[in-house]
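Hello Y.,

Per our agreement to keep a running log of every chain we model this quarter, I'm adding this entry. I've kept the format consistent with earlier entries: sequence first, then predicted structure.
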Amino acid sequence: MKRTLMMLALVSAATAGCVPSYRVGKGDLDRYWLLTDMATGTRPAAPKAAEGFRMPTRWVIRADDDAARAGASITRAMALLREGTDEIEFSVSNAHAAAMVNVLQDIRAGLDRLEDMIDTAGRSSKNEWAAALAAALVKAEAVSRPFTAEPGDPGPDPGQAAKPSPAAAQPMLHMITIYLNEQAQGGLLGELTTAEKRRLRDVLVGVMVQVGFEVAGKTATRQVRREVVEMMRSRGDLPTLQADLTVRLTERIAAAPPARGNGKQQIVHAALKWGPKVIGFMEAFLSQWDRMDSITVEMFERRGRTAIGATIAAKPGKPVRIADVVTGMPTIVLTGTTRIIAQPDATGAGETVVSFESGKQGGAVELRYEGAVYAMVRMMAIPLASGPLREIRLSHSSPIEGEQLVNIAVLSEANDDRTDPRRMIVVQHATVKRLVREAFDVRTVTEKSETVVNYITPRKRYTYLRKKGPAAQ
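Predicted structure for the entry above:
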């Protein structure tokens, strides 16, 4: 729903045919259009070490047309990962990139499945919890099996054997998992041994089992994780594995001790909130790998929290387009060399900030309102203007019952305004929900919802308001 929130609001505004506008007083925009200083107070991330195992804080991924040469670099990178290193570099060919996109889609689907479980927290049977978690784990096994084989392990599924090697996804998934672990303050991988952290299957199982049990209000023990890993190693076909996992997890969830408090819930939400977003961005870049020279990802510290910076180098004359990844956003177009910095809780208000910086080789990041819908909005309602994208700020709260809030602020500039190019679009969506418990069912009822879209220029503020009444779900 969040992905389409802005688009639906703008479509509604356009079809309504008229959006009221209000004068913006002198200096009013100065109070709203404030860029977050993402440079002050930063320092290189401390080496990530646990029990002698060093995890990289800098990743350099280069494009290489030679698949064999790229494959050799991936093999070397994985050897370094197993040994432990502060920095890692490898190359990816177009064939590797295509296979990696499929792998990342499967992992994102698994995380989305776990996120769906949150919506039924406290209302599902143990069988339903176990089935949902088993389905997510089988997604993880389909990803990890091609490059985690050990003596005695089953071979890959016949359908996977004919596909290009997804080997480059292994270091990429390690990178994503390390980042999520940082956002969860070490809680996702904290209970894994050094040997387990070196094996992708153990890492993925560790994350998904812990998240799945916490969503169910339970605590996963190390024994449960080891049982799941052993079942993955010993079962040949994935449907049989899923059925067996469902039975075993039903038993283990019933016997598991209660979750240990709100700290673990923050870990769950960090993993499910940021995992799909990070993976979605990687998918967007990898699906256009023939336009890329390199991506450099670095972790650093700001205000005592881990932030991530990505330097994107596109080939000359080949812009990279990102659509449908950021919540409800128009198309983002990157040319030349640019840098993106992202950090949860980046402001005093707890907002997530994504900052965009132009770089060398004519680097630029533009927000473009393209397509028939945006043309209709410009013609009938709001004078949307494409131009440089400077910052996105996001905050939300989503309890199962009560008031749920989403706030998105996009700071950009207009290409066709030489006097004051600043533009800002703010989307605020609020819903009030309650649980209705009946003899054989528990339903979520939306008491009311309200969406407000403000498009702010130096002279006018265009405001669209939409309200809805009760709706059972």
